[in-house]
Amino acid sequence: MTQRQLFLGAYVLFPSGHFAGAWRHPYSAQDFLGPRLFQDIGRTLEDARFDLAFIPETVSHRPGFATHGLSNALKHDPAQLAAQIAAVTTHLGVGITLSTSFNSPYNLARTLASLDHLSGGRVAWNIIQSSGAANYANFPEVTELGRNELYDRGDEFVESVVALWDSWGEGALVADKETGLFADTAKIATPDYKGEYLAVQGPLNLPRSPQGHPVLIQAGDSPRGREFGARWGDVIFAIERTQADLRAKKDDLRDKARALGRDPEKIKLFAAVQPIIGETTAIAQARRDYLRTIITPEAGIEFFGLFSRLDLGDLAPDTPYAQVIEERATPEQAASRAIVALDELLGSRRGSATIAEAAIEFSTSELTPQIVGTGVEVAEQLAELFESGAADGFLVTPTHFPGSFDEFGRAVVPHLQRLGVFRTEYAGTTLRENLGI
Ligand SMILES: Cc1cc2nc3c(=O)[nH]c(=O)nc-3n(C[C@H](O)[C@H](O)[C@H](O)COP(=O)(O)O)c2cc1C
To answer: What domains are defined for the chain?
Structure first.
């Protein structure tokens, strides 16, 4: 029997992402407005046999994020970026994030169907339901729903999109020059979808795509979000700090999928990781320490402020971290994932750390686990995590671009292949074939 193989995805993030200083890294490219950088990243990922380039999305502006070049300070339209990457590659999958809150089912279904045709079946949709006043400010006609209702509406949204994708049946496109029949309308269904939250008539003006439907990705983490993921997700993204947390999340998703009548084997969990690679272990560790030095206290505090939901704007950087939490965090905030996990990460340093030091610690990877070492060591750690069954694949977040992906491809991938856990060639041409779903 052939050995189970892991999957690899890469976050296409700029000017920075989980590492808040990425754009200031001396090796980072600066041409994030033109196509070259993204085309280069696509080629690099395909040379390394990655399964997926993943493009996140947001539609809001935070002045503090813009000042410091933090994640989301710039955002291209994800579909346009995906088209650039797909145009210069032939096997790499391209995942884009689109919100069910700010798009209509028809436009979203067609954007993805178009991309799936034009890429030869390599597209995935990361399904998000948006929250937060800053996002909704740009869509005054949309009312923000509560968490659970957002997902109820999301269910309808995805149902309607799938119905639109399926509107053209097998053989509906005839294009027979002899007879003059272009499309057999008897084989084109009108979904006429009517839900509690939304309605769309259809049919779509495109046939089914080469892989049937684009691959569906989900990253919800609340109980309702996980249920949504277990219902729709072919791929689930997770950011968990420990192997045990990852395992627990995977088991929970599999249970939820079973309860919904789905085969849990069909759901692939990708765990986010931040590799920090060096020619020697000592160089890799020095690099990890170096990363902290290019995040300014102001940038770190701004970044941590968003995730902790604490108001930190007026603080002196040398205010003790423990004092800030004690004085400013509500019990609910103090129990939040951002603060609990950061406390764990700081460990014995918690008592002596300033708010700037703690915030910079948070901002090196936004709690994404850092995998530090030589290419061999990083490969061994990833293989071990994969073989434990806690993850089916990894989503690599860069510390600089495109260098992080180049280093991973050259220093880590050959060792994953030598360990027998990563293929040397793509299994097929569509993303579904490569993911085995
Ligand atoms: C790896 C990963 C990628 C994500 N990408 C995005 C994104 O691009 N845009 C976004 O608004 N939310 C993104 N999210 C947030 C999730 O969609 C989700 O809202 C979050 O995990 C909280 O779960 P909940 O909605 O069930 O509370 C991402 C989450 C993870 C773990």
So the answer is: 7-165+202-281+367-435 (3.20.20.30), 296-363 (no CATH)
